[in-house]
Design a protein that fits this description.
Helix content is 39%, strand content 21%. With 243 residues, the chain is α/β, with parallel strands linked by helices. A 7-stranded mixed β-sheet has the order 3-2-1-4-5-7-6, with helices on both faces. The chain binds S-adenosyl-L-homocysteine. The site of S-adenosyl-L-homocysteine has 17 residues, from strand 2 and helix 7.
Length: 243
């Protein structure tokens, strides 16, 4: 785990032995399950350490240090094999985490990791953002909604903002297309009650490309018509064609 330890230090995060034990178990199970189910394309050693674990940790750069270990309510939408939510939970155990994922096999894997590591205050939900975002138990209930590699930003804001309480935040982890995606999301953001706060470039150890954290403030309640029914956000993204 040398790459991860060094990369975390560069982000001013220090990993303790209990964090490393949990992450080693998670890596081992990810590789083992991936042989049977297609959980992730990245399973090489350096890839898991940097592109999965360290990239997940980098979300903390968007929070004030005092917020890291507080009991924030966070939902990770389209978490897949748990990224970025589970590494964040391992590092910051007080987070109250909801993992939302549409694919059943990934949900089974997530529950296995949560149970094996005895992680508390983690709820794993098998469902779609369009449905769960209309459920009172989850709508506008979170301090933060996070997502990585789930959808183009105009679509993603329709998934994320319904979960966020007023004055909470959404965080999208994006690649080099981030500035252009932000530009195309302007109309969608006005519709769902979001406003871009800032875009934070992140350089991770060993990666040539720059990653971006797109931070969005929830400035108005999301109208009840959003999110639209399953499939609609991606079929008809909230893009103003006249713009
Ligand atoms: N966030 C993870 C997984 C990215 S792949 C990572 O960065 O590694 C995208 C995941 O989002 C897939 O597992 C897919 O099943 C899930 N997904 C896509 N659309 C979704 C939706 N509308 N609601 C819930 N999950 C969704």
């Amino acid at each position: 785990m040398e790459d991860l330890i060094a990369g975390a230090q560069e982000l001013r995060l220090s990993l303790r032995p209990e964090h490393l034990r949990a992450l080693r178990f998670y890596r081992q199970e990810l590789i083992a399950w991936n042989e049977r189910f297609n959980l992730t394309a990245i399973t090489d050693d350096a890839g898991v350490q940097i592109r999965h674990f360290l990239d997940s940790f980098s979300c903390l750069l968007a929070l004030d240090p005092g917020e890291w270990f507080a009991g924030k309510r966070i939902i990770d939408v389209g978490t897949g094999a748990g990224f970025p939510g589970l590494p964040l939970k391992i590092l910051c155990p007080r987070i109250k985490l909801t993992l939302l994922e549409a694919t059943g096999k990934k949900v089974s894997f997530l529950q296995h990791i949560v149970d094996s590591l005895e992680l508390r205050d983690v709820v794993v939900i098998h469902g779609r953002a369009e449905d769960v975002g209309q459920d009172k138990a989850h709508r506008e209930q979170y301090d933060w909604a996070l997502a990585r590699a789930v959808a183009d930003l105009p679509i993603l804001v329709e998934y994320l903002l319904p979960f966020v309480q007023l004055h909470g935040r959404a965080l999208a982890q994006k690649g080099e297309g981030a500035p252009a995606e932000v530009h195309r999301s302007e109309w969608a953001l006005t519709q769902v009650g979001g406003q871009i706060r800032r875009i934070v470039p992140v350089d991770l150890r060993g990666l040539t490309e720059t990653r971006y954290l797109v931070l969005i403030d929830k400035v108005a309640p999301t109208p009840v018509k959003y999110p639209r029914r399953p499939g609609m956000p991606s079929k008809r993204p909230l893009i103003d064609e006249r713009a």
